[in-house]
Amino acid sequence: MIKNSSVFVGGSLSHLPPATVNYAGWEARPVNSFLMANGGTAYHYRLINSATGETLMMVVFEGVSNADEIHHPIHRFQDGLNIRVAMEVIRSQKPVIAEQSVSDRLSFIRKVYHMLILSVLVAVGTCYLAVTNEAVVQFIASNFILTLVMYIGLLVFVFFARKKPSLGIIALFSFTAFTGVMAAIPVIMYSEHVFNAAVLSLLAFGGLSFYVLTTRKDFSFMGGFLTVGVILLIVGSLLNVFWLQSSGFDFMITIAGILIFCGFILYDTSNIIHRYAEDEVIMATLALYLDLLNLFLYILRFLGASRD
User: Fold this and answer.
1) How many Cβ atoms sit within 10 Å of the Cβ of residue 204?
2) CA distance 174 to 144
3) How far apart are CA 109 and CA 47, in angstroms?
C-alpha cells in the first residue's frame, strides 16, 4: 500500500473496473484496469477514508493463476477475491515507512528521535532523583522481584498502548522513568565513570545510527544472531552469579554486551527506515531507548571493571 502512488502493471489499458464501493469507512473509486500478459486483469482503485480524507491506492488482480507472475510493489490479490474482502485486507495492513514519500519518512524519523531524546531526559531526571534519595535506592536494592515485576508490567503497558497516541506516550515515559530509577544503583556504584560512559554511549549510538541512516543498509539479517546473543548473555550472567563467580568471565560478558547492543543499534535503526509502519513511533522509540540504555550500562560496567 502506497500513499498517492501510481500503478503500472504492464499490458494494455482495458475497461474500467466495477462501480464505486463503500465499506467500513472507506470509499473505493475505480480508476482503470490493465490486461496483463498472462491474461489476467489488474483493477486499480483509489481508496479514500471518509473520516480523515486519507488517500491510498489498491490493486485487485483477477484471473491470475500464479502469484509469482505478479511483480508489483503494492499488494497481490488472487482471482476470486472481491473488492470488499480486498478492502478489509487493506484496512488491516498499514504501509511500512519505507513505502512512503521522502517527506513522510523524514517526518517519521524526526518523531522517533524527538521521542527518544525526551525519553532519555525523563530517565536522566528520575535517575538523579533516585540517586539523591537514599530510601528509593534501598527500596530498589531490597525488592528485586517486585522491581522486576514492575519493569515487566510497564513494558507490557507500552506494548498495549503503542498505537494509542496519548496513552502510548504516557506508557513510554512511565517505562523510561522507572528504568531511570533502576539505573540509580549502577550509577552510584560507578559514579566516577558515569560521565565517560554517557559520552562513549552517545558517540557510539550517534555514529552507528548515522551510518545506517545515511547508507540505508538493511541489517535485518542480524536479528537472529542478536536474539541468540542476548539469550547467551542472560544465561552466562546467571551462571556467573550463582556458580562461576569469576571476575574474568564477568569482564568477557561485559564486552559481549557492548558488542551485542551496538549490533542492536544497527538492527533497530535499520528497522526504522525499512520495516516499521507509520503508526509505530512508540515501538521504534522504545527499541532505540533500550539499545542506548543497555549500551550505557555495559560501558559503565566495563569502565568500573577496568578500574578494579
Assistant:
1) 18
2) 19
3) 26
Which cell numbers in the block locate residue 63?
484471473
∠ CA 143-145-149 to the nearest 5 degrees?
A: 115
d(CA 47, CA 89): 13
What is the tens place of the pLDDT at every residue in 178-222?
999 999 999 999 999 999 999 999 999 999 999 999 999 999 999
Model pLDDT for residues 241-287, shown as the tens digit of each residue: 888 888 889 999 999 999 999 999 999 999 999 888 888 999 999 99
Per the structure block, which three cell numbers stand in for 260? Answer: 551485542
Give the phi and the psi of residue 163 in degrees, each rounded to 5. -110, 15
Predicted model pTM: 0.72
Domain residue limits, the chain: 12-93, 98-142+177-307
**Angle subtended by helix axes 281-307 and 247-274, to nearest 10:** 160
**Do the beta carbons of residue 96 and residue 277 sit within 8 Å?**
yes
